[in-house]
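dumping this here before i forget
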Amino acid sequence: MNGFITPIAPPPLQPLCDGHGRLNPQAIGWSPRPRVHCAMPGNLGRRKRWNHWCITTPHWMLSLTFADLDYLGYGAAHFLDLDSGKLVSHSQLRPLGRGCELPDTPLASHEFCDSQLHLRADDRGSAVRLTAMAPDIGDQPLQVALDILRPAHLDSVNLVCPMGKRTFHATCRQLGLPVSGGLQLGGRQYHCVPGQSFASLDFARGVWPLRSHWTRAAFATGGGIAGNFGAGWSDHSGLSENALWFGGELQHLDEPVQIEQSPQGPLAPWRLNCASEQVDLCFTPRQQHQAHPKLGPFFADTRQWFGCFDGVLRGPRGEKVPVASAYGWIGATQARW
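structure:
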């Protein structure tokens, strides 16, 4: 007998769809690791694919979107200086998704290529090199070079959910990924703060209803504490994307989390809570950004608030876990697409 242990191979990925593009019932459900191959044959003109990265630091935040809606490609970069409140953004549309290369699995490289906006994520599994270049964003050039770690122990939220008779969505939410590097906007450089800067990835593939809406909230902070909360797209499926991370260990919340804003104004605080009291948070926005890409009768009206979460979570053993000034965001979208 030798002392070598043969590693156990992961199970093969489950196909999201059958050969006709219909949702595979075996793919439906939740898992802490990616287990679905998201190729979507057929459904031409109705498929939605996007990879959305968000970087949070104590001094600035960055959002990068790679999207292919079949009939339209969309790339976007939004940057917020938290100290000055300066917000700059640039978005680019490409007909028929040209220049947008998005994979069928969440641990793979992806790219949006246009002369006015070039986004790329070189994914090596355990690490990602995220770059962006735009010659004119707020009348200044932007260059981004970030190195993102994906620790082997860190779980993610993976959910496949039917939305209707012929519509469905698959997602992989990765939160609390340590990030280093920085960006240059015009003549100023911005750097990540070690131990306080985190990346998140929203990998999404599906065939959506013509009219759709959803709300999502996410944050990460030191000690491997993070949260992901969503409402809208999965409400009638009996499935939940809500989850907490403690020390990097994922705790799935199999219940709704209420995400509601005070009606006092666009930067009014939000409350997030659930019946089990595992989540009791207040989100205080620092800035709001709105994007409204439109093509004929089709549009996606998205508002994203950047700011801080404070409050209390319940840990795996029922203990109270305080959350103080954890950077994150809330996004709300209404779409006809």
